Amino acid sequence: MKTKIILFGMFLSFLSIGCNKDDNNSRSAMSVEEATANTKMDIANDDVSKIVEDQLGVEDGISGRGITGIQGFLPACATVTRIPEFGTVIEVGTLITKTIDFGTTGCPLANGNVLKGKIIITFTYQPTANSHTINYQFVDFYHNAILFEGNKSFTRIMSVASASVPTHPIVTMNLDMTATFPSGKIYHRIGTRVREIVAGYETAILVDNVYNVTGSWTTTFPNTTVQNSAITSPLVVKLSCANIVQGVITSARNGSTSTLDYGNGDCDNLAVFTFNGIAHNIILGN
Length: 286
Fold this sequence. Notes:
Elements: H1 2-28, H2 32-57, E1 79-83, E2 95-101, E3 107-108, E4 114-124, E5 131-143, E6 146-149, E7 151-158, E8 169-180, E9 186-199, E10 210-220, E11 226-238, E12 246-253, E13 256-264, E14 270-275, E15 278-283
């Protein structure tokens, strides 16, 4: 009888070890599904950054080029309210709160991405300052059916002029967000993204704006796996395109490394995810 108990115990131990190995393997393997989820979060981050920075300057005399009216580059289906109200004379040092409401039925941006819910931003009116800190929060906010939650901030600094671009803004975006996908899977991301305009800032229109994005972050996946990612070749974002058009993100977890390559600058919906030397095509978009 004792022999049977010992053998049964050994069997359970081997079974447990086997399950742990399978679990560890699943946590270290990087799937196309996870890579696609990452691209969707990347695209949402860039759209939100553009929206918030745009609204920092609209009707407040802080920004400048290519921004006119209360809407800025927002579509007509989005509404903007402000405290103090629009038309009120604002003194330096006044705290401004803006609510950007995209409604509940879906409000498409010019690049095709569809938004719902609200983004609330707050900042101090300092029109001549070189640096601004903007706090923003999501309220029932969806980007292409993905629910984003959390309170965040970014810093906008006007850089010195360079040979190719005049004095222009550089935005450092502090990431601390939770993304819930339609499938119910939840991702949490913490890190930093730095976005610099490299073309189009000197013109009076927005659609020709081009940005370079750098940074690094940590993502916790639904199975609790933690992945570290860094932009190893600057991401290129064109305001006229729905997706990131160029650049490479390199990710690592549990000793495994993968890359996500957004292409050569063409305004398309393709990216290439490579893991263990095997390349997989990914279709971007909503």
